[in-house]
Amino acid sequence: MEEKQILEVVPGLEGIPAAESAISFIDGEKGVLEYRGISIETLASESAFLETAYLLVFGKLPDSAEFGKFHDDVTFHTRLKLKILRMMEYLPENGHPMHYLQAVTSAMGMYYPARDTLNPETRYWAAVRLIAKLPTIVAAVHRLKHGDAPIQPRNDLSFAANFYYMLFEKEPSALVERVLDVMLILHGDHTMNASTFSARVVGSTLADPYTVVASAIGTLSGPLHGGANEEVVRMIDEIGSKEAARGYIERKLEKKEKIMGVGHRVYKTTDPRGEVLKKYITLLSEHDGIDKKTLDISREIESVVIEKLSSRGLYTNIDFYSGIVLRSIGMPTDLFTPIFAVGRVAGWLAHWMEQLKTNRIYRPEQKYTGLREQPYIPMEARG
């Protein structure tokens, strides 16, 4: 007699490997994150985003010739086609920038056809265009939503400085430029998170890379993924002052309510990306024009969280710190998650390319819990 297979469902696929990968590594117990074997702390102090993006996408640090070509190619492709900008003008002004970003990224696939996903040349130019154009899209969205004309990219500025310039029509200070570049590095990849899994699933169908990245952007837009940093700043605004922070957190804990930016599915100790950003928060606190009220409230929240929750392996994570840092350097709250996407596109592309090396379309099983062998009841007989 044939035995029936009993399927055990693991909610959220927690602990279930979905793929082999050589892109990033996490040790959640020790608070370790590496890209291609290099620690995130080293990359944040020694590298720049475009070099880190090359490392993630192509599997190694580039030599000077490789980086020169990649840098020049990305810089050359930062502009958007006029028809894309015109399309953006007709999108609803009250739409969230993440929805703009997803829609425009998807539309790019019609202007830059890339259906031959197994062609290395196709993959290279798709990666260049996506890395180059996402900051331009985000900046244009911000400008258009406020009734201003988009600003053309400046090829004489660094990747981070150009992004800042396209947003605010002024160059950032050296510190703000470095903070923004580090922010993009820290968000470059993070193993098999929800948006990366989405990218690999869509990529496994041999969909074009713009569709792959658009699907990942849609996944990232959820408040339990990329949107958490926006919620952190809203929480800080709700608290209002350093003195009110302890009572607010304690009331949340009493009601067993979630505190945004606290705890992580993987890390059982401090988030190494958050530790990097903390150093910059200290530098920013001494910088003119920085929102010191936000910094004061955040430090008090962190202190209370360590006191109350560290024994349970719960600490403030990167979403907590990234929201604070971005607010401190003048970034509007609704751009926090799009900035996350500008950095994470390198990781999505890396996983897409890795998926294609030994591709097998994703087709998981399910455990059926519904009714069976039910009769069809004519409409006149239905109660």
Write a concise synopsis of the structure shown:
The protein is mainly α and 383 residues long. Helices cover 56% and strands 3% of the residues.
Keyword list:
single chain, 383 residues, mainly alpha, Citrate Synthase, domain 1, Cytochrome p450-Terp, domain 2, 2 domains, three-stranded antiparallel sheet, 16 helices, 56% helix, 3% strand
CATH topology of the largest domain: Citrate Synthase, domain 1
Question: Which structural category fits the helices and strands?
Answer: mainly alpha
Number of domains: 2
pLDDT average, as an integer? 92
Order of helices and strands: EEEHHHHHHHHHHHHHHHH
* β-strand amount: under 5%
CATH superfamily descriptor of the largest domain: Citrate Synthase, domain 1
Largest sheet: 3 strands, antiparallel
Distance between the termini: 41 Å
Spatial order of the strands forming the largest sheet = 1-2-3
Tell me what you see in this structure.
- It contains 16 helices and three strands.
- With 383 residues, the chain is an all-alpha fold.
- It folds into two domains: 17-223 and 334-357, Citrate Synthase, domain 1 (Orthogonal Bundle); 228-328, Cytochrome p450-Terp, domain 2, CATH 1.10.230.10.
- A hairpin with a 4-residue loop joins β1 and β2 (32-35).
- The chain starts with 23 loop residues before the first strand and ends in a 26-residue tail after the last helix.
